[in-house]
Structures are given as structure tokens and as C-alpha cells.
């Protein structure tokens, strides 16, 4: 308001008040009201029914209205260096409704607030930078997920579960287009113990029920996110678990997102049944390939994308890995290296995704799913 009046207007107002001897202090602005900060969601308490008023810079967007397209970005393995800042700048330029941060944030204990400040400086205090833990903050040695969720709390209405660890979210809250299901298999928590996502465990059933409910409610798209992948041509084997991964395929999750391996890798559409009884890590079976072009039909299979290129050192792509033939696109230290983010637009009829490289990189990828 003060900027639109201009200095001359302000002076005239104050001079008039002074000449009348009335309320000279009215020319001085009062202290701003602090923006409310919601508490992280818990398993027994859904997130607040509406997010706080936004004070974010123009790089962030308001939450979509009922039935509107949903625009989100996703990446993991971020750090606090120049690469991370370039990726966040790329996200800011895309203006998504929310970002999925797929774990491994600052990589060092004590830097939680520095990481949060880096994010909010580029995306805004109230931008929905939605967290799920990685192994570098899950057990407290290289950081503390509880501290991250305090300085980057849930900003989306309707979240259910334990924010930062295991949660689900329908966007928009009314007449949703996407259900996000964020889980934490395959990584250690305090005491060196992983959470139990084995077959028919409580967390397995929670995940399966969230998928089934989305299908029964005719939510167009189901996206599952976690830190660890199963299929990978980077450094790691199937840390997410073979059974858990096959369950996601059997239930026809549309898109599974992960980080952990510091590469970008995106599979063809994969499915089980017929000649592919199940997906077996460290092997390849052509019968598990449902569609191998970049325009795919929903329900035919599942696409897995690892976006572990959020800003820290990249890993090599191992082209000799037998799983390589499952992948439609890969990027790593030794092959088209790039930091960047996955950028996704979901409508009632289409989920369109593309890899957006950070400044200074050129690698790209794109794919679509149609209903």
C-alpha cells in the first residue's frame, strides 16, 4: 500500500493530519501480524483444514481449487550447496502448487535450520515443500527429521498420517485429481531399526488401503513417493523391498517416485501377470514391460522414476546392470550429468511429466500417462 501511494502522497497525508493536530502516529505502520504455522500432521490428527495465508514470493502458487489441474515437482538428495540452490531456483521458476522433497536434505546434523532457510528464501515461507525422510535424517546421525518438519511444516490441507515419515494427501482436497502416498521403507530409524513394510505388516496394509481407497473413490491418479528405490542402475540394490515394490505394481499405482541413488532414472511402464509373475530385482524379464514408448495408457502398468539429483554429487549410471533394459531414460555422473527436478502436471485425463535441468545442464526427459 505504501509503495502504491508514493512518497509525495504519504507526505501529504501526514501533513494534513499534523495541521489538524490529530493522530500523528497514524502515519506509522503497526507491526505485521505473524503468519500462523501449522503443526506437522500425526497419525491420529489430520493436518489443518486450510493452509496459512501465503506470504511467499511470486514463485509459489495458490493451492488448486476442486477439480483443477495439479502441478507438482519432485526431487531428493539435495544438500545446501550451489547445486541445491540452482535446483530450487528451477522449481521457483516453474511455480508448482507443491514440491515433494524425497529425502536426504542437508547431510549433516545441525544444518536443519540452514537448509530450511535456503528453501524458504527461494520458494517462500508458506510454500508447500512437503517432506518425506531419507536415511541421512531418519536416525539422527546426519540430521533429524523432527527438526526439519518443525521448520518446513506441512502446508497442505487434509494431510493424514505422520508428516515427514508416512502420510497421504489428496490434491485438491475436494474433488481431488491426485492422491499422494509418502512412505519410508528400507531405511533405518533411531536404534538402527527400519520401519516394517513387510508383507501384511501394519505399514504395508496402511499403504495398500490408501491405494485401494483412491481407486474406489475414482481419484484419477495415484502417486507413491519414498526415499529408496527398488530398481536402480546407480549404486544401490532393492532397498525398498521386492514384495513391497511388486504390491505397488499389482495395485496399478501410476507413478512411483524415489531418491537415494544420485541419478535420474525412469522406467518404461512395468506390469506383472501373464509371463511376468513378479518383478525380480537384479534380473530382466521382457514380459514385465507393459509399454516402452513415452505415451502410455493408465492401468497398463507402473512407471518408476528416481530423481536423486537435487543438488549433491552424482553417481555413475551402470549400463551393464541387467535392470538397465527396464529404463527408458537415465542420467548420471558418467552419462548426461544434470541436477534438476521432475515437473508434473496432472489433469483428470492426463499425467504429463518432464525432467527440468538446473541452470547449466541440458539433459531432459518427458513422458505422459493417459486415461
Walk me through what this model shows:
This protein is an alpha/beta fold and 371 residues long. The chain is 21% helix and 22% strand. The protein has helices at 2-20, 82-94, 112-123, 135-138, 145-151, 202-216, 242-250, and strands at residues 70-75, 98-101, 129-131, 160-162, 166-171, 178-182, 188-189, 193-194, 221-225, 255-258, 264-267, 269-270, 289-291, 295-297, 303-307, 327-331, 340-346, 350-357, 365-370. Helix 2 (82-94) packs parallel to helix 3 (112-123). The chain is globular and about 50 Å long. Mean pLDDT is 87; it is low at 1-60.
**Structure summary, number of beta strands:** 19
Which stretches are low in confidence, meaning pLDDT under 50 for 5 or more residues running?
1-60
How far apart, in Å, are the first and last alpha carbons?
47 Å
Q: What's the tally of helices?
A: 7
Walk across the major sheet and give the strand order. 4-5-6-9-10-15-11-16
Q: Rounded to an integer, what's the Rg over CA atoms?
A: 22 Å
Beta-sheet strand percentage? 15-25%
Assign an overall shape.
Answer: globular
Q: Averaged pLDDT, please?
A: 87
By secondary-structure content and strand pairing, the structural class works out as alpha/beta
Largest sheet: 8 strands, mixed
> Percent range for helical residues?
10-25%
Task: Write down the secondary-structure element order.
Answer: HEHEHEHHEEEEEHEHEEEEEEEEEE
Amino acid at each position: 500500500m505504501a509503495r502504491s501511494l508514493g512518497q509525495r502522497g504519504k507526505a501529504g497525508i501526514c501533513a494534513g493530519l499534523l495541521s489538524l493536530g490529530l493522530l500523528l502516529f497514524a502515519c506509522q505502520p503497526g507491526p505485521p501480524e505473524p503468519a500462523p504455522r501449522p503443526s506437522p500432521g500425526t497419525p491420529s490428527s489430520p493436518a489443518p483444514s486450510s493452509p496459512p495465508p501465503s506470504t511467499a514470493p511470486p514463485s509459489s502458487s495458490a493451492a488448486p481449487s476442486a477439480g483443477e489441474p495439479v502441478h507438482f515437482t519432485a526431487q531428493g538428495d539435495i544438500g545446501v550447496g550451489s547445486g541445491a540452490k540452482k535446483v530450487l531456483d528451477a522449481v521457483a521458476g516453474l511455480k508448482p502448487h507443491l514440491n515433494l522433497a524425497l529425502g536426504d536434505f542437508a547431510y549433516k546434523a545441525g544444518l536443519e535450520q540452514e537448509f530450511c532457510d535456503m528453501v524458504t528464501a527461494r520458494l517462500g515461507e508458506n510454500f508447500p515443500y512437503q517432506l518425506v525422510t531419507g536415511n541421512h535424517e531418519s536416525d539422527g546421525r546426519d540430521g533429524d527429521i523432527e527438526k526439519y518438519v518443525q521448520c518446513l511444516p506441512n502446508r497442505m490441507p487434509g494431510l493424514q498420517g505422520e508428516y515427514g515419515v508416512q502420510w497421504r494427501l489428496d490434491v485438491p482436497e475436494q474433488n481431488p485429481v491426485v492422491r499422494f502416498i509418502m512412505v519410508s521403507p528400507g531405511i533405518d530409524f533411531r536404534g538402527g531399526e527400519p520401519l516394517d513394510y513387510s508383507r501384511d505388516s501394519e505399514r504395508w496394509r496402511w499403504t495398500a488401503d490408501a491405494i485401494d481407497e483412491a481407486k474406489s473413490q475414482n481419484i484419477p491418479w495415484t502417486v507413491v513417493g519414498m526415499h529408496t528405490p527398488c530398481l536402480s542402475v546407480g549404486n544401490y540394490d532393492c532397498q525398498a523391498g521386492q514384495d513391497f515394490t511388486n504390491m505397488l505394481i499389482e495395485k496399478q499405482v501410476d507413478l512411483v517416485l524415489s531418491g537415494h541413488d544420485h541419478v535420474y532414472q525412469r522406467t518404461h511402464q512395468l506390469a506383472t501377470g501373464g509371463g511376468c509373475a513378479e518383478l525380480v530385482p537384479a534380473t530382466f524379464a521382457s514380459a514385465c514391460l507393459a509399454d516402452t514408448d513415452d505415451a502410455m495408457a493408465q492401468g497398463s502398468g507402473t512407471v518408476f522414476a528416481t530423481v536423486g539429483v537435487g543438488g549433491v554429487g552424482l553417481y555413475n549410471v551402470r549400463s551393464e546392470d541387467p535392470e538397465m533394459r527396464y529404463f527408458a531414460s537415465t542420467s548420471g555422473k558418467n552419462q548426461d550429468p544434470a541436477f534438476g527436478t521432475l515437473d508434473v502436471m496432472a489433469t483428470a485425463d492426463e499425467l504429463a511429466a518432464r525432467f527440468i535441468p538446473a541452470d547449466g545442464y541440458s539433459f531432459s526427459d518427458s513422458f505422459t500417462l493417459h486415461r
